[in-house]
């Protein structure tokens, strides 16, 4: 009976000895070749290795269990923290720690605090800067030991409904709002740190000051540092030294214009901060810094050579005598007078006062024609072989495209010559006709004579060279006919620089060479121009092309005579900027004698007087009544009236109603 089928099975089991079992397990552990693609082969390998470890542990469960108890727990580098455990909290230099309770926003503050206090009993704490976010509640504490205890609560902190708080703790600094209470506490703490005798303020580790707690006051925040500077400048503007060591500062942005607020600051301690570069110290370059501390800053470690570091610091602070507590060797300075004052700026320059009247007349006639409806009359103003070059900056530099002039642009940085097209030569206009034709393609313009400056750099019988700068209006609507010169005409304000080389021809002069630079008016120029529209312009002109007023100043030259011509009204001593005399253009219809009143009797006809009144009003910006009064009191001597007006205007003796039109 034992030889049946069942017996054969038992006999087979008897034949399965330990050697066979070992061989079968050995074969089982061999890796099998597979042609199936596994996108995560690394994960598969880890699973096989885990399986091998489990199979080996099955051989001797008792031994593996005892070894596991003796072996310390560890995890692979980069693997996540096991559930229910948190990374060890590290103490930071700020002294503040952030506590986050996820999903805590669904409970009120009192309920959460009561649960935390119950779990931490008998320890007591007061949460700071409590705020509710979308999926959590966040608060801060400035006690490291307390932060550790909160982190160790884990699942022990529980609400009555069974919700486990599971607070997460990490290093973090709260957001602070600057208000009057905040500034008052800052001021109180700073008052205790100020030394009246040495005029020194110690703000080192200011965020750890016990007089400020529990408010967090980080000076490395720009708004907090700005508030501190406000307090300093308002209460101790004569401060000499400030200690800002150990404040974790990364930038000095709050110290902009510090030389105006703290002009006597000479000693500055910035050690143990986080300034990455010496460039952050440029805000102090206008202060007479004599002592500076920069130790333990990243900017110091950027220089391997100490002498190089010292040299770079001294280049920014030439008067520095002490760096990081070490006295520096005196620098070799040249004997320069540091207090020397620059010459007074002049509105214009004339190398020879003899050319003043000639330049004035030339420009007066030139721009009268240039701003007229047709520029063809300028043909007589250019030499037969004249050259003209027009340039302008790129759109980025000019603040916008100069579309009306762009096709004439001969800026050598953008004009690239090719074998087939020599643009540099093509854009250089040669000959009288080419020059005037180019200028005639310009849109209608109105040059603002009151903005002109003129520099006469060369004047001799063979030629004269002068440069004119100023503003002009580019009229953007040419469909209004003659009325387009109205002040209501839309326009774009442009800035120009034009250099003329003028040579004698027959009984007059003509332009031999001209360069023109055009760009958009800057914001400062635009503001100044708009401001000038509401002020009278002594010796100035109207926008429609009245008498030229350049504010010329003669440097050098002989003594002035007593007549009222422009040449002799310029200041030969160069001590004062003098406006040009008012000389009416021929198109005004007023004769020279009537205009100046110095070579004949006063005008008697009403038409001439009315023209003079209108000219005086346009030049002085006074209304017609006051312009007539000015002329009547000077016996209709136009130049004398202009002189009297200018003198009284400078003395602020002209009433405001004179300018009400």
Automatic annotation (TrEMBL):
Keyword check for Transport: yes
Keyword line: Leucine-rich repeat, mRNA transport, Nucleus, Repeat, RNA-binding, Transport
Basic and acidic residues bias (residue ranges): 12-24
Residue ranges constituting the NTF2 domain according to the UniProt record: 358-518
Segment forming the signal sequence: none
Stretch list, region Disordered: 1-38, 59-84
SMART domains found in the cross-reference section: TAP_C (SM00804)
Keyword Nucleotide-binding set for record: no
Gene Ontology terms: biological process: poly(A)+ mRNA export from nucleus
Molecular functions per Gene Ontology: RNA binding
Localization in the cell: Nucleus, Nucleoplasm
Gene Ontology cellular component list: cytoplasm; nuclear envelope; nucleoplasm
Family note: Belongs to the NXF family.
Protein name: NTF2 domain-containing protein
């Amino acid at each position: 009976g034992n030889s049946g089928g069942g017996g054969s099975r038992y006999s087979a089991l008897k034949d399965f000895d330990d050697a066979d079992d070992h061989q079968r397990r050995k074969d089982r552990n061999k890796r099998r070749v597979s042609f199936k693609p596994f996108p995560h082969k690394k994960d598969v390998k880890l699973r096989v290795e885990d399986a091998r470890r489990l199979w080996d542990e099955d051989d001797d469960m008792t031994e593996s269990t005892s070894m596991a108890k003796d072996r310390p727990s560890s995890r692979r580098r980069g693997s996540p923290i096991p559930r229910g455990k948190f990374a060890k909290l590290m103490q930071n230099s700020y002294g503040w720690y952030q506590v986050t309770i996820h999903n805590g926003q669904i409970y009120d503050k009192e309920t959460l605090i009561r649960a935390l206090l119950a779990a931490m009993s008998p320890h007591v704490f007061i949460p700071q800067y409590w705020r509710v976010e979308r999926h959590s509640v966040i608060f801060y504490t400035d006690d490291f030991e307390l932060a550790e205890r909160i982190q160790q609560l884990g699942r022990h902190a529980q609400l009555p409904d069974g919700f486990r708080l599971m607070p997460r703790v990490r290093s973090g600094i709260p957001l602070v709002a600057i208000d009057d209470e905040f500034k008052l506490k800052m001021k109180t703490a700073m008052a205790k740190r100020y030394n009246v005798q040495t005029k020194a303020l110690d703000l080192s580790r200011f965020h750890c000051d016990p007089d400020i707690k529990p408010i967090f006051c980080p000076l490395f925040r720009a708004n907090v540092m700005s508030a501190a500077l406000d307090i300093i400048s308002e209460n101790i503007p004569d401060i000499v030294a400030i200690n800002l060591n150990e404040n974790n500062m990364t930038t000095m942005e709050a110290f902009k214009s510090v030389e105006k607020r703290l002009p006597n600051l000479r000693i500055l301690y910035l050690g143990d901060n986080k300034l990455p570069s010496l460039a952050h110290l440029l805000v102090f370059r206008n202060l007479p810094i004599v002592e500076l501390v920069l130790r333990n800053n990243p900017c110091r470690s950027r220089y391997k050579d100490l002498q190089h570091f010292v040299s770079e610091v001294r280049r920014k602070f030439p008067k520095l005598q002490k760096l990081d507590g070490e006295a520096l060797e005196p620098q070799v300075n040249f004997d320069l007078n540091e207090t020397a004052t620059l010459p007074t700026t002049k509105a214009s320059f004339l190398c020879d006062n003899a050319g003043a009247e000639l330049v004035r007349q030339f420009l007066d006639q030139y721009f009268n024609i240039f701003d007229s409806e047709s520029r063809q009359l300028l043909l007589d103003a250019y030499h037969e072989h004249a050259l003209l070059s027009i340039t302008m900056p790129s759109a980025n530099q000019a603040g916008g495209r100069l579309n009306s002039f762009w096709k004439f642009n001969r800026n050598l940085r953008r004009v690239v010559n090719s074998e087939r097209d020599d643009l540099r030569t093509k854009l250089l206009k040669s000959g009288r006709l080419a020059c005037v034709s180019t200028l005639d393609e310009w849109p209608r313009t109105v040059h603002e004579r009151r903005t002109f400056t003129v520099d006469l750099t060369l004047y001799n019988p063979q030629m004269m060279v002068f440069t004119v700068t100023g503003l002009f209006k580019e009229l953007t609507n040419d469909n209004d006919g003659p009325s387009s010169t109205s002040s209501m005409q839309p326009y774009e304000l442009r800035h120009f620089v034009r250099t003329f080389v003028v040579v004698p021809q027959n009984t007059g002069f003509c332009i031999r060479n001209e360069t023109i630079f055009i760009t958009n008016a800057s914001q400062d120029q635009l503001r100044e121009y708009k401001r000038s529209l509401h002020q009278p312009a002594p010796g100035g002109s109207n926008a429609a092309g009245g008498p030229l007023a350049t504010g010329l100043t003669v440097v050098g030259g002989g003594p002035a005579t007593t007549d009222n011509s422009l040449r002799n009204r310029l200041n030969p001593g160069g001590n004062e900027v003098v406006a040009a005399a008012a000389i009416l253009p021929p198109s005004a219809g007023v004769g020279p004698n009537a205009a100046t009143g110095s070579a004949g009797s006063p005008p008697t006809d009403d038409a001439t007087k009315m023209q003079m009144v209108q000219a005086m009003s346009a030049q002085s910006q006074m209304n017609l009544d006051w312009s007539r009064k000015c002329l009547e009191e000077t016996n209709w001597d136009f130049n004398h009236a202009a002189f009297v007006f200018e003198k009284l205007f400078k003395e602020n003796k002209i009433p405001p109603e004179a300018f009400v039109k």
